Amino acid sequence: MTFIASLVRAFGTRREELLAARAQRQLELDAGKLPDFLPETEQIRNGDWTVAPIPADLQDRRVEITGPVERKMIINALNSGAYGFMADFEDSNTPTWENTIQGQINLRDAIRRTISFTNPDGKTYQLKDKTAVLMVRPRGWHLLEKHVLIDGQPISAGIFDFGLYVFHNAQQLLDNGSGPYFYLPKMESHLEARLWNDIFVLAQQLLSIPQGTIKATVLIETILASFEMHEILYELREHAAGLNCGRWDYIFSVIKKFHHNPDFILPDRAEVTMTTHFMHSYSLLTIQTCHRRNAHAIGGMAAQIPIKNDPTANETALARVRADKKREASDGHDGTWVAHPGLVPIALEEFNALMPQANQVQRKREDVHVSAADLLQMPAGSITEAGLRNNISVSLQYLEAWLRGNGCVPINHLMEDAATVEISRAQIWQWINHPGGILNDGRRITIDMFRQFLQEEQIRLQDNIGRQEYAARPFTAAGTILDQIISDKNFIEFLTIPAYAYIA
Ligand SMILES: CC(=O)SCCNC(=O)CCNC(=O)[C@H](O)C(C)(C)COP(=O)(O)OP(=O)(O)OC[C@H]1O[C@@H](n2cnc3c(N)ncnc32)[C@H](O)[C@@H]1OP(=O)(O)O
Ligand SMILES: O=CC(=O)O
Ligand SMILES: [Mg+2]
Question: How far is the CA of 109 from the centre of ligand 3 (A)?
């Protein structure tokens, strides 16, 4: 606590200032100003610097599995055959106090190889000799940890997650021949990266570990960050391992940042894929930026997961994952993410076929030319009743699971977490609040339509799982939160903020 208090006292105010800067930037976007590459940092973009050398165990990251910090899943992920494992306090984790603290305990035990688990059916779990390289994703700058007060105030959840983990494990990780490695989520500017860098410097000093020991991979998962990728790597150049395409939050961010702008109405969520022009451009720009700076460009997460008991549907889902990984490997990504151990062999096959060496940093992709207009070119497509209903039902089901402490669930055979569901609920809001929110059959999407469909989707769920089961679970609270977010005239920045009020 003394260590965490030092970090919070040194940097808490700067975090608040950066959040205020986000709000200020939003006002400019609301007034119609579009983002562009920053004139004041042109020298950094044009300069010939590179990031500090990347440690040996982060040179080959061809397949990384991600998952919440649950005990059994940590063991399964570390044993999965993936090269890396990102243990997630963020998109896939409900930040109950129990989950947060037990997650830290699980990671501490995993690093010391004392972790084990027994299923209710008696199946036991322990680590294999060879395990994935561990990375940890603390929560984003927007979130508070309300269970910890310093000087009477709840503290930054990100500093808490980072601080507890690095304090207890940095030295042990070094003794194991690895290091304290992080993924940094949801940043919107290079100044936010500078804050993380300064936190790393103080943490390393307080823990007496060499400067530059901490390595971080930054998720480029906001539209504004995609205009500052060089700058973000520059700020973190002593600590940067790479960038990652957090595609789901990225799509959400586009809807959120331009929620006032009718030119940014997106079609059904299922149509906003990585092969649309703006998403492919962002992925290519990430690869080019990273390779110019000798950093790794990690791909993103396909939402498909293995489907049990339906071989045909399973084959289709796996083929989609395969195509996604093939595109990433052939474009020049140095690795990718999977959501489930069953997908590790598929992603490995695709990367092994196109990337026999440890990474593709030598492929500089100087042929890529991505402009601001490319990043902002929205796809055409239609909005359907099925798409609207799916957004409503998925948001409701996810929020219900989240309130029970489960931040990542399969819904309709897709992985749903806080990022994918932010897209769903943001689309509902966007379609209601813009004249362009019209179904392909000509009906205008309204709050009344949303409420009618919500009620019908609730009844459908109740019929599927049974009245008693439905009543026993927090569906009512989930529906209330969803209605509150959708009916608010202001765009609520993150759905997890009102939802957190229910659990803390
Ligand atoms: C947008 C983003 O932020 S992406 C990053 C955040 N999202 C994630 O990390 C996704 C994590 N994935 C998951 O949580 C799960 O795979 C789900 C919820 C999507 C699906 O879970 P389930 O339906 O329970 O999967 P399923 O029943 O097929 O699991 C089979 C086994 O694999 C394990 N497993 C599934 N996913 C994972 C995972 N990501 N890591 C470790 N183990 C896993 C299960 O624990 C289970 O183990 P067991 O057989 O020993 O009991
Ligand atoms: O964190 C990943 C994302 O896609 O969002
Ligand atoms: Mg994300």
Answer: 26
Which atom of ligand 2 is closest in space to residue 221's alpha carbon?
Answer: 5
Cα 127 from Cα 343, distance rounded (Å):
20
For residue 155, CA distances in Å to 107, 158, 176 come to 22, 9, 31
For atom 35 of ligand 1, the residue with the nearest CA is: 340
Q: Are 240 and 233 in contact (CB under 8 A)?
A: yes
Supply the pLDDT for residue 429: 98
Q: Quote the ligand 3 centre to 119 CA distance (angstroms).
A: 29
Mean pLDDT to the nearest integer, 460-465: 97
pLDDT digits (tens, 9 = 90+) for 354-375: 999 999 999 999 999 999 999 9
Q: Find, among 17, 29, 490, the residue nearest to 227 by Cα.
A: 29
Task: Determine which residue's CA is closest to atom 42 belonging to ligand 1.
Answer: 73
* Averaged pLDDT for residues 51-60: 98
The C-alpha atoms of residue 190 and residue 318 are separated, in whole angstroms, by 36
CB-based contact 421:357 (threshold 8 Å):
no
Put simply, whether the predicted model's pTM sits higher than 0.95 gets the answer yes
Q: Work out which ligand 1 atom sits closest to the CA atom of 409.
A: 18
CB distance 421 to ligand 2 below 6 Å: no
Half-sphere exposure of 126 (CA within 13 A, CB side): 6
Angle of CA points 95, 99, 105, to nearest 5°:
130
pLDDT at 124: 98
pLDDT in tens, 127-165: 999 999 999 999 999 999 999 999 999 999 999 999 999
Supply the residues annotated as catalytic. Answer: 137, 417
Q: What is the pLDDT of residues 92-117, one digit of tens each?
A: 999 999 999 999 999 999 999 999 99
The domain covering 2-303+312-374 belongs, at the CATH homologous superfamily level, to Malate synthase, domain 3 (3.20.20.360)
pLDDT computed for residue 481 by the predictor = 98
Determine whether the shortest distance from the Cβ of 503 to ligand 2 is under 6 A. no
292 lines ligand 2 (CB under 6 A): no
Mean pLDDT of the chain: 98
Q: Where are the domains of the chain?
A: 2-303+312-374, 385-503
> What's the ipTM?
0.99
Beta carbons of 234 and 44 less than 8 angstroms apart:
yes
Nearest CA to ligand 1 atom 16: 340
Q: Match domain 385-503 to its CATH number in 3.40.50.2300, 3.30.460.10, 1.20.1220.12, 1.10.10.10.
A: 1.20.1220.12
Beta-strand runs (E) in 163-308: 181-184, 215-220, 240-245, 296-301
- Closest atom, ligand 2, to C-alpha of 248: 4
